[in-house]
Amino acid sequence: MRAAILREYGEPLAVRDVPGPEPAPDGAVVRVDACGVCRSDWHAWAGHGEWADDRVPRGQILGHEPAGEVVAVGDEVDRFRPSDRVVVPFSLGDGTCPHCRRGAGNVCEDGRALGFEPAAQGAFAERVAVPAADYNLVERPPWLDATAAAALGCRYMTAYHALAERAGVGGGDAVAVHGCGGVGLSAVQIAAALGARVIAVDVDDDALALATESGADATVNPTAEDGGARTVPERVRDLTDGGADVSLDALGIAETCRNSVRSLRPRGTHVQVGLTTDAERGEVSLPTDWMTRWEISFIGSRGMPPTSYPDLFALIEATDIDPGALVTSELSLSEVSGRLAAMEEYDARGVEVVTDL
C-alpha cells in the first residue's frame, strides 16, 4: 500500500509502497477514504515534543484523522464486520483500564496515539490498523460522508470534548476562541451550536471571515488598527460585558494562552487545547495571583473518548451544524508535505483533507 512516512524532521514525507497491516485478534483494518491534515501532524513533522518525551520517531506513518470502511477484523471482534463505514479516533484506548471503563478512553493508561508512535502507525496511507476495535471504532451514521467524518476525526471532536464535556458550555455563555485554524473554527461552530455567544480571535482576516461564517458573533484581530491600544483581553471583555465565561486557546503559543486566561470574567474557565512549539517547550508562565484572586479555572483537554461520539453525532443532527463546511481543500497524498510546510508560516485555512490516497 502507499503511505507517507516521516524520514527527516522538517523535510518532505517519503511517499512509498509498504506492506499493508493485518488485524490483531481484537483489532481491525480500515481502508482509508479520507484523512485530515492537522496541526498536530505539523508538530510531529517538525520534530516537536522532546521536552515532554513525546517526539514522534522517524519512520512513522503520520496521519490521525481517518474515516473509511472496515476491510478485515480479528477473531475476537464482535461489533464490526467488513464493509462497515467507520470513523477512527486518534486517542485509542485499550477498553479495559479504569479510565476507559469510566468513559475516558482518551486518557487510557495503556492508550496509543494513532499516527504518533510505532505501535499505532498512521492513516496517511491506504489502510490503517485499529487495536481494540470493539472499543475504538465508531460507526458512521448514514448522513456522514468520509470527508466530513475526517474533519471530525481530531479537531472537531477535540473542540466538542473541550467545550461540552470539559468546560460545560451552555446556552447564554460567552466563549472566546483564540486561534481560528481547524480546531478553532470547529470550536466556534460547536460553541454556537451549544447556544453560546462566540468571540473569535485571530491575526488573519480570512480566518476571521471563516469564523463568522461558522457562527462567531464578533471577531478580534489583534493587529487591526481599529483596535487602538487595547489588548486582546480588553477587547474581549468589552465585547462580553466583563469577560468570557469560557476561553479556549486553540493555538498553543504563550501569547494566546495568556490572552485567553486574561480574557475571562471572575470564575471563568480557560481550556488549553493547542500544543506548544519549541519556543515554549511545554511551559507557559501565567498570572497565577490574578487567577487565584478571581478563581479562574485552567483545564487541559485532549481528543475525545470514543464513547462520546453518539453525543457529538446527536448535536450535529439536532442543530444542522456542518463539519464538512469547514473543509477548504481536498488533497492527494503527495501534497501533504507541502501543506505541513505551509503550517510553519500559519498559511493554512480551515480543514484540509486527503481524499486521494
Task: Write a structural description.
The structure is a single chain. The chain has 357 residues and is α/β, with parallel strands linked by helices. It is 28% helix and 23% strand. β1 (2-5) and β2 form a beta hairpin. The longest helix is centred in the middle third of the chain and has 21 residues, at 146-166. The chain is globular, with a radius of gyration of 20 Å.
Notable features of this structure?
alpha/beta; 357 residues; globular
Chain-averaged pLDDT: 94
Low-confidence stretches: none
What share of residues is helical? 25-40%
Terminal Cα span: 9 Å
Record field, number of beta strands:
17
> How large is the radius of gyration?
20 Å
| Beta fraction | 15-25%
- Outline the biggest β-sheet: 7 strands, mixed
Specify the overall morphology. globular
Structural class: alpha/beta
Number of helices: 11
H-E order? EEEHEEEHEEHEHEHEHEHEHEHEHEHE
Write a brief caption for the model.
The chain is of the alpha/beta class and 357 residues long.
Can you lay out the helices and strands and say which pair or pack?
Elements (H helix, E strand, L loop, with lengths): L1 E4 L8 E4 L10 E10 L1 H8 L19 E8 L11 E3 L3 E2 L5 H4 L10 E2 L13 E4 L2 H4 L1 E2 L6 H21 L7 E5 L3 H12 L3 E5 L3 H9 L4 E3 L11 H8 L4 E6 L4 H9 L1 E9 L15 H6 L3 E4 L8 H11 L7 E6 L3 H9 L6 E6 L1
Parallel strand pairs: 10-11, 10-13, 11-12, 13-14, 14-15, 16-17
Antiparallel strand pairs: 1-2, 3-4, 3-8, 3-17, 4-5, 5-9, 6-7
Helix pairs in contact: 1-11, 4-5
